[in-house]
Amino acid sequence: MKTTIAKVGQFVDQEVTIGAWLAGKRSSGKIAFLQLRDGTGFIQGVVVKAEVGDDIFQQAKNVTQESSLYVTGVVRAEERAPSGFELTVTKVEVLHVAVDYPITPKEHGTEFLMDHRHLWLRSKRQHAVMKIRNEIIRATYEFFNDNDFVKVDPPILTGSAPEGTSELFATKYFDEDAYLSQSGQLYMEAAAMALGRVFSFGPTFRAEKSKTRRHLIEFWMIEPEMAFVEFEENLEIQEQFVSYIVQSVLKNCALELKTLGRDTSKLENIKAPFPRITYDDAITFLQEKGFGDISWGDDFGAPHETAIAEHYDKPVFITKYPTSLKPFYMQPDESREEVVLCADLIAPEGYGEIIGGSQRIHDDHLLKQRIEEHKLSQDAYQWYLDLRKYGSVPHSGFGLGLERTVAWISGVEHVRETIPFPRLLNRLYP
């Protein structure tokens, strides 16, 4: 019976065949232990010389790291094994012998591992991170589908920028200027006016020359937009969504979290509602905590966000930032027009902002005024103004950065480990 490592539990005490790679091995006299992986998981194969004969035993003992194999054996329940099972090997068929595999069990530097990212992905740690990333993606689709959102795909090549062009990659679109998208938001607003509640899930690009552990040049964003949804309801949907994906990972990726050494008690508490703090209160809090150099009107950096987040055991919303700090499309607070109806969601444990969202301006005159104030081309944004001209309604949305969210939930230090092939300031290879 041919199967996968993830499904061996269905075949206890039965003989199965698994197509696998050798992740590692060790031998002790007349027993060889093969650490096998097949993409679905990891399992130990035990080869006993007295049971398989000298030929198979020598073959198993001599096979090299990352060689590909068909391994046949009997599935045994083994409570000491991470997966709960191991394989008593009866046959080994070598498909391809790997010679001098570069990533050995010894310590390797970050740059070496990044140069070999195409191979580093095979490691148990990277496998666990990618499985958690996949579960977050699966749960995202499930959450939005269950809540009657429609998936819409905005363009990646755009003729204008939602937040200005200073951090965009420019290119030529035949005889016009074009940019790689930094957000699908404006297009999602158009989709929301047609379909009510929508979400996109795709790559975005920021030409920001940053080297911090939170930044990538190319990353993936989940961007819902919702017609007839105002500020408070927008926050409620965000906290429900984040709670849902965290609990889904806890439920479906227990082995991966254990592999990464993640303290799951910190995740078990992540359930809505989340605390809220205004920008004003955040400034006061930071000043009281010794950040004497910050004052009203300043933006928050990583140390500020971390200090605020450490005060809570759940993600925390920082709401109602000054208008001057935020993009042109955000709805001002009617009772206080120097701030906008926006919020950043800051993850615990120093992982920073994972969501930015706001209620959007729905008045065409105010939006036109904001476009002028930001010195943007009215012609380029005419289609966006049309949304306020023909049946405008209050509406809201947000964007969640997938890689920062994966880093926080999985507990890894740097976002470079949360995407299969990271694009960093000085890295375009492999």
UniProtKB/TrEMBL annotation:
GO molecular function, one term: transferase activity
Enzyme class: ligase
CDD domains: AsnRS_cyto_like_N (cd04323), AsxRS_core (cd00776)
Subcellular location per the Swiss-Prot or TrEMBL entry: Cytoplasm
Its EC number(s): 6.1.1.22
Pfam family, one: tRNA_anti-codon
UniProt-listed InterPro entries: Aa-tRNA-synt_II, aa-tRNA-synth_II, aa-tRNA-synth_II/BPL/LPL, Asn-tRNA-ligase, Asp/Asn-tRNA-synth_IIb, NA-bd_OB-fold, NA-bd_OB_tRNA
SUPFAM superfamilies attached to this UniProt entry: Class II aaRS and biotin synthetases (SSF55681), Nucleic acid-binding proteins (SSF50249)
Keyword hit for Lipid metabolism: no
GO CC annotation: cytoplasm
Matches recorded under PANTHER family: ASPARAGINE--TRNA LIGASE, MITOCHONDRIAL-RELATED (PTHR22594:SF34), ASPARTYL/LYSYL-TRNA SYNTHETASE (PTHR22594)
Protein name per its UniProtKB record: Asparagine--tRNA ligase
Organism expressing this protein natively: Halalkalibacter nanhaiisediminis
